Amino acid sequence: MQFDFALDPRARPPHRAAIDALTRPAEADCVARLLDAASHDAPAQARIDAEATRLVETLRGKRVKAGGVDALMREFSLSSDEGVALMCLAEALLRIPDAGTRDALIRDKIGGGDWNAHVGQSPSLFVNAAAWGLVVTGRLVATHSAVGLSSSLTRLVARGGEPLIRKGVDLAMRMLGRQFVTGETIEDAIANGRDNRQRGYRYSYDMLGEAALTARDAERYLASYRHAIEAIGAAAARLGQGVVRERPGISIKLSALHPRYARSTRGRVMRELLPVVRSLAASARSHGIGLNIDAEESERLDLSLDLLEALADDATLDGWDGLGFVIQAYQKRAPAVIAFVADLARRTAAREANAGRRLMVRLVKGAYWDSEIKRAQVEGQAGYPVYTRKVHTDIAYQACARALLAAADAIYPQFATHNAYTLAWVRETARGLGVAESDYEFQCLHGMGETLYDQVVARSTPLACRVYAPVGSHETLLAYLVRRLLENGANTSFVNRIVDARVPIAELIADPVRGVRATLGAPHPHIPLPVDLYPDGRRNSSGFDGGNESSVIAMHDALSAWADHRWDFAATGGSRIVNPARHADVVGSIAFATRDDVDAAVARAEVAG
After folding, report:
1. Phi, psi (5° rounding) for residue 205?
2. What is the rounded CA–CA span in Å between residue 131 and residue 496?
3. Cα gap 29→32, rounded to integer Å
4. Would you say 291 and 324 are in contact if contact means Cβ atoms under 8 Å apart?
5. pTM beyond 0.90, yes or no
6. Which of 1, 155, 262, 282 has its CA 20 to 30 A from that of 317?
7. Extended beta strands in 374-533, E state
């Protein structure tokens, strides 16, 4: 029998083995290793606190007065039942294909809300209008089967029924979309960023869309990326900007370019996807712009690193400073990934044509936490690939930021954060390591971070901020919009707490290291390990960890030991048993019982009985 695990024929190098070892380790052990790197001495900590306080005071003054989505999220936070209802609608309504199911969801999520409590609680006309609308629709959907609705207004709305509400929610989603999406086309997005560019901001564009499900999906995304690179390159040429890091760039999602982007199809992916990504990188290189490989779910990390390494080793891309990679700090493997990327950058820069080249690395906290936790539970994994407490991710982000700055000779660090404390922490760390402000940059999401970075970014300063700018139509907005709404609405998020006057500034700038030293890195008490998921003491079934190369190699070795064994259950003749996935692969043979065989067996049983 043959097994095709598409293993890398080379020996697993130390940096990749170190990544494997950190796939699902104990959380407390990981946190303990990060604390020193995430900490500062008392004088440096005092400077961080002072800068963070100044940033937060100014930011809070501007954001509290803001209307629109800021005000809506402040009034309907995820800590309230109504906030949960709004988030559920935002997450689900637009992707439900039939009207009947959409109407049922509206009745379920809006009908039970105490919307009256929110009327008049906000100075924003936008929020009060939304609250009044929810009062009306809430009454309507709660009593839609009753007769004699009390007011003519409610009767008027009732004539439209749930279809009218569906139209209203659709309009609300479009309004929210304008807050978070730069433009429906790349041309619109480039034009809409003009004012920010004049104030000193850089841009990285992201063509909205999730993973490709078919080859046709992948072709459509590829065409979108190619067109975007041409448009961004033309815009960069008009602007006349210099080095690659000062120019606009693009982020690509590898799962959008191949419908089978998974470790189980590694051989096929490397044959089919690598040439496609190489062609996009070559196009970006010809235009003098950057191309970042975006982060995805944890089981795809190893495959993404394979593709990154292949591109970095590609001599046709020599001399280009625009190749980039995104690392998620909430993954326990993040420090080892940084070590690997830094080593890769130094190895490939050692070639004469690449002297001085640096790989761009964007550090983010991570956007798939819920699905990472749930998937580990469903698959019965040994542990979680991500931290179960937000404060642990905060610690990891700081430790990873220090590692990136320490490798600034080989890496151009890009720090994606909307947190004022984190911004101050990174700047202080860079100063302590002697890294100039021109040798790294910050990044923020369009519609979420500009108010913070307006305080530190200007044409007259070397500190840069790049706006991560999503581009897409209303139909492609949904998945991205949900992540942004959840980030804005979560009651633990900085962007939500900054506009809540009840939260003291001291809490907003609290050093996460102090909190972690108190908990000793213990995981969240309400998130048991996948094996302990069931409350009655019954152990969860254990699954195969296909995202961990060490597990794949172990499975390959275990099966290969039986590869040449034939399972023959027929003395002579019989029927061949073949591998259903490869018919030339004969597993063994079996002889099926005839009627005479059955009669003889029954007779023997009767005699024996």
Report:
1. -100, 140
2. 19
3. 5
4. yes
5. no
6. 262
7. 411-416, 441-445, 464-471
